Structures are given as C-alpha cells and as structure tokens.
C-alpha cells in the first residue's frame, strides 16, 4: 500500500520535472494519497475483512500486494507521465470534489458497520437508533457466538453499497487521462470485476455463516450493490 502511495507521488513529481505544473497529475496524485491515507487511518478495520479472515496471507494476497498493486493499481498516475493533460481549474475542482466525496462515503460506510459492532448497537446511525439483526452462528470449535448485522444507514441501501463510491473514485481519478486510451482505466475495470465477484463471494460466506439470519437481512435489503440493478 505504501509503494502504491509513493509511486503515485513519484509519477506526479516526474510529470512536473518533464512538463512543469500539470494539474491532471496533481489531481490523480492527491486523490490516491488521500484514499491511501484513509486506508492507513482505518487499517485496524481492514484486519476484520474477508482478505484477512478468509483469504489470509497466502500467495494470492502476498503476490497481489507486492506485485499486482504497485504494477497495476498505479497505472492511472503512471500513464499521465507520458500523456500529460491540462484540465483547467473548473474540471480540477470538479474531479477533486467527486473524489473527496467518494472517499468520505466509502469510509463512512465502513466506519458505520464497525461503530455499530463496537458499541453493541448502542449508537446512532444517521440520527436514529440503528436497526440490527443479532445473528447467531457456530464457531469451528462448536461454541455459539453472535454478530450484529446492520440494517440501517448505508447498509440499508444495498448489502455492499460502499463499493459504489469505491468504483466512482477509481473512475474519477483515472478521468484526468482523457478518454483516448483504455490502459489508464485498467484499475477501474479490474476493480469493477473484483468487487462484483467479491460481493457474490461475501454473500456466499455470510449465507454459510449466518444461515436464516442472512436470509432475513437479504429480505430487508434486497440488492447486492446497486439498488434496482444488482
Ligand atoms: N481497492 C480495492 O482493490 C478494494 C477495496 N476494497 C475496499 O475495502 C473495504 C473493505 O472491504 P469489504 O468488502 O467491505 O470488507 P469485508 O470483507 O470485511 O466486508 C464484508 C463483511 O462485513 C460483514 N458484514 C456484511 N454485511 C454486514 C452488515 N449489514 N452489518 C454488519 N456487518 C456486515 C461480514 O463479515 P462478518 O463475518 O464479520 O459478519 C462480511 O463478510 C471497503 O471499503 C472496500 O470498498 C475492497 C476490495 C478491493
Ligand atoms: C489477481 C488479483 C485480482 C489480485 C488482487 C489481490 C489483492 C491485491 C487485492 C484483493 C483485495 C484488495 C484490497 C482490499 C481492500 C483494500 C482496502 C482499501 O481501503 C485499500 C486497498 C485494499 C487493501 C485492496 C488492496 C488490493 C487487494 C488486497
């Protein structure tokens, strides 16, 4: 993750060295760094995700983080080094605004879920007491345990609504590259496939883990990612 942030800054500095101030490189760099700062801020939350709990630190994650991420996730900023663009002030501000908003909504949704669990539901979500399902499940050692499934806030819009701002951000920080080439959108395309597959995989995992409680949640929140579509 650190390599991703550092490479984005390095590519931006290289653009400045070659062409002087280039707003497209700066915008992509700022959004990437803000997004990754958010990741490090929320890092303890990441320890509870499917990557760590289900996938674990095997070849997929280690190779992914050491090779895949630095080489391919940095393509939007790398491409700008050889294809600089000038956006102008209005477009620069527009891209920044959409980008910051996406980072915020994505963070807020992850935070909502963690906060409700950390407070055992004794908190407010969007100004109201949260609706929750107390889902019982069995651990591998046969002991019974319980998790809270949030049915309010972002988690009432769809079961993985937070993937929408994640995708919007990936798209918007690639946009400074213009629309003549596909390569800078590679991260967005891959992320789209990865997140749609992840939403499906996560549903399978939760169905297996929570059984009837997950069906109850699915009855209340019908869509996986985008309401009305998927
Ligand atoms: N840029 C990238 O390449 C990627 C970025 N991301 C981002 O990483 C972050 C974490 O990813 P995410 O897929 O959410 O991580 P998780 O794998 O932790 O999310 C799913 C888990 O959350 C719990 N959960 C699901 N629904 C609810 C609910 N309604 N209430 C409470 N808990 C629930 C379940 O875990 P439990 O067993 O604890 O109940 C479920 O397995 C997100 O911001 C995502 O956008 C994700 C993938 C790729
Ligand atoms: C072959 C292939 C598609 C490999 C990719 C595997 C991994 C590199 C990625 C799988 C899940 C990704 C992530 C999940 C959640 C994240 C939180 C976000 O805030 C920052 C990014 C990330 C850590 C992201 C990083 C790449 C993966 C681990």
TrEMBL record:
Please provide the Gene Ontology terms (biological process) for this protein.
Answer: brassinosteroid biosynthetic process; cholesterol biosynthetic process
What InterPro entries would the database entry show?
Answer: ERG24_DHCR-like, Sterol_reductase_CS
Q: Which pathway does this polypeptide act in?
A: Steroid biosynthesis; cholesterol biosynthesis
Q: What class of enzyme is it?
A: oxidoreductase
Q: What is the topology of this protein in the membrane according to its UniProt annotation?
A: Multi-pass membrane protein
Cited Gene3D superfamilies: 1.20.120.1630
Asked if the keyword Transmembrane belongs to this entry, the reply reads yes
Per the UniProt record, one Pfam family is ERG4_ERG24
Q: Which UniProt keywords apply?
A: Cholesterol biosynthesis, Cholesterol metabolism, Endoplasmic reticulum, Lipid biosynthesis, Lipid metabolism, Membrane, NADP, Oxidoreductase, Steroid biosynthesis, Steroid metabolism, Sterol biosynthesis, Sterol metabolism, Transmembrane, Transmembrane helix
**What is catalysed by this protein?**
cholesterol + NADP(+) = 7-dehydrocholesterol + NADPH + H(+); 7-dehydrodesmosterol + NADPH + H(+) = desmosterol + NADP(+)
What EC number(s) is this enzyme filed under?
1.3.1.21
Q: Where in the cell is it found?
A: Endoplasmic reticulum membrane
Task: List cellular component terms (GO).
Answer: endoplasmic reticulum membrane
Q: Where are the transmembrane segments?
A: 25-41, 53-75, 87-107, 179-197
What does the sequence similarity comment in the record state about its family? Belongs to the ERG4/ERG24 family.
- This chain's protein is named 7-dehydrocholesterol reductase
Organism, as annotated: Didymodactylos carnosus
């Amino acid at each position: 993750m650190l390599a991703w942030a550092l490479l984005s800054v390095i590519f931006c500095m290289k653009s400045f060295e070659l062409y002087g101030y280039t707003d497209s490189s700066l915008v992509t760099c700022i959004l990437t760094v803000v997004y990754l700062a958010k990741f490090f801020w929320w890092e303890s939350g990441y320890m509870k995700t499917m990557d760590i709990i289900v996938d674990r630190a095997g070849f997929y994650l280690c190779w992914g983080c050491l090779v895949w991420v630095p080489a391919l996730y940095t393509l939007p900023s790398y491409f700008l080094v050889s294809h600089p663009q000038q956006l102008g002030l209005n477009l620069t501000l527009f891209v920044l605004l959409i980008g910051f908003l996406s980072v915020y909504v994505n963070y807020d949704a992850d935070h909502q879920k963690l906060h409700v669990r950390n407070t055992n539901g004794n908190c407010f979500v969007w100004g109201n007491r949260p609706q929750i399902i107390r889902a019982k499940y069995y651990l591998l050692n046969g002991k019974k345990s319980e998790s809270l499934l949030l049915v309010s806030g972002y988690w009432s819009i769809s079961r993985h609504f937070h993937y929408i701002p994640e995708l919007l951000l990936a798209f918007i920080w690639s946009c400074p590259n213009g629309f003549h080439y596909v390569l800078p959108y590679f991260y967005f395309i891959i992320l789209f496939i990865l997140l749609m597959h992840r939403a499906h995989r996560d549903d399978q995992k939760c169905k297996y883990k929570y059984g009837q409680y997950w069906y109850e949640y699915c009855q209340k929140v019908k869509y996986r990612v985008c309401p009305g579509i998927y």
